[in-house]
Amino acid sequence: MAARALPAACAVPEHGPLAQRDFPEPDHPYRTPFQRDCGRIIHSRAFRRLAGKTQVFTERGSDHFRSRLTHTMEVVQIARTIARALGLNEDLTEALALAHDIGHPPFGHAGERALDEALQQYGLRFDHNLHALRIVEHFENRHLEFRGLNLTRAVREGIVKHSRDYKAQDHPELAQYFLDRKPPLEAQLIDLADEIAYLTADLDDGVEADILTLQQIRTGVRLFERHFSPIAQEHKAAPEKALFQETLKQMLNALADDLVTEIRRRVAEAGIQDLKSIRQAPQRQAAFSTEMEQLRREAKEFLYQNLYLCPDLQRAHKQASTVVLDLFGVWMADPGLLPAGYSTQIEQQGAPRVIADYLAGMTDHFVLEMHRRLRKAVPSRS
Ligand code: MG
């Protein structure tokens, strides 16, 4: 069934204030500003490093586990589909999905927590959205005329606001990103496309890792069982693996369908006709229906209890945290051990931030290699 699009004025236009860049550049003859942003993100070093960063599993027990890069590609696919169904700006949506995890440090959320813990001793915080902004504004250097990627304002605003709202009084440095207004729908839907991607993928990878079983998922995840049961009835001779994969696919479709329908319903109910009203609305319009939201929470809770907090992953998280904190400690004690490019930034930024920036950029493999090399100098906390 073809989905009905939202009023055309709800989409971020291809040209206009949100397509502006800080450093003005002439238009490209046949690529839109947001297509160019997609290209700049894909060609960045930070994007390539996503291949070496944990999604859920640090140890390569299987070649089929998602990395942050393959997870990102799944989010791009889902987000683009939703944007197209709603008549939103697909290229902007794709750029935001490509960048949505670019600020993640090694070892997934365990790495992020460790960096945040390290920085808190110095009155600072680590936040992957704000780190992503620093990457695209400062750390990527591929252009002669400017520093960073010179991305459009809509993409930088979406990087900051796709998953949470920041308060203007806490973040004066983000004043140019309209913190008193909601982000465009293209940015609002990214966080939910991300959820759709990992809720289904993590069940898949959890079974691949022999941590989750099909039976356990059938009992614990109502949204899964709702699709599994009729498929299994209809295909009695099918191998379990095929039934499992078919169910994950239907579960993903059901989540995406619900999101499209609910966004359309909310926008219509609020009488929203354009982007200005989306930005001024008291609530974000991108959400699941009440029933699907309940099913989503249950599925997420199941993953926490049975996968993210299972002993194997807890052990890996503990090790990740030790490695990150050890390295942070050794460089704080002797910043002279940092590569030259970093040590020169210390005067401006302070050692804690520079060290966190360096660590955050590393892949899982590289951070472990660094730890191995510096181990002699590191008083291990483990
Ligand atoms: Mg993600």
In CATH's first tier, which class of the largest domain applies? Mainly Alpha
Number of helices: 18
Helix/strand structural class: mainly alpha
Number of strands: 0
- Helical fraction equals 55-70%
Report the major sheet. none
Instruction: Encode the helix/strand succession as letters.
Output: HHHHHHHHHHHHHHHHHH
What does this molecule look like?
- This protein has 382 residues and is mostly helical.
- 60% of the residues lie in helices and 0% in strands.
- It has 18 helices and no strands.
- It folds into 2 domains: 313 residues, Hypothetical protein af1432, CATH 1.10.3210; 63 residues, no CATH class.
- α3 packs across α8, α4 crosses α7 and α6 packs antiparallel against α7.
- The chain binds magnesium ion.
- The site of magnesium ion has 5 residues, from α3.
Concise structural overview:
This protein is mainly α and 382 residues long. It is built from 18 helices and no strands. 43% of the residues are buried.
Question: Topology, pairings included?
Answer:
Blueprint: H1 33-42, H2 45-49, H3 68-86, H4 90-99, H5 108-120, H6 128-139, H7 153-161, H8 185-208, H9 214-220, H10 222-234, H11 240-269, H12 275-280, H13 290-308, H14 311-333, H15 340-343, H16 346-349, H17 351-361, H18 364-374
Helix pairs in contact: 1-4, 3-4, 3-8, 3-11, 4-7, 4-8, 5-14, 5-17, 6-7, 8-11, 8-13, 9-10, 10-11, 14-17, 14-18
Residues 71, 75, 100-101, 194 line the site of magnesium ion.
What labels would you give this structure?
382 residues, mainly alpha, Hypothetical protein af1432, 2 domains, 18 helices, binds magnesium ion
